[in-house]
Amino acid sequence: MAERQESPKGGYRYFVSDEQLAAFARLTPLQRLEWVEAAREFTWLGQTTETRARHERLRQGKPIA
Fold it and tell me: Distance between CA atoms of 27 and 37, rounded to whole angstroms?
């Protein structure tokens, strides 16, 4: 699993090892899509209604303010 470290400038950064990249590369295209879908669903479940609305506005190219 990728390590999450606090960045000195705020936010987060992630480290992905060569082993993790190699493991992902060994997945079939279907497995990769399933992985992405699981990550999308996980992110969606963690968002508030306000955050979802802001993401949708960004997706549409509209300002979020």
Answer: 14
Q: What share of the chain is helix, strand, coil (3-state, %, to 5)?
A: 55, 10, 30
User: Mapping DSSP to helix (H, G, I), strand (E, B) and coil, where does residue 13 land?
Assistant: strand
Global model pTM greater than 0.85: no
- For residue 63, the SS3 value is coil
Beta bridge partners of 15: 3
Distances (CA, A) of 14 to 5, 7, 11, 17: 6, 9, 10, 10
pLDDT digits (tens, 9 = 90+) for 6-16: 556 667 788 99
Within the chain, how many helices (H) and strands (E) appear? 3, 2
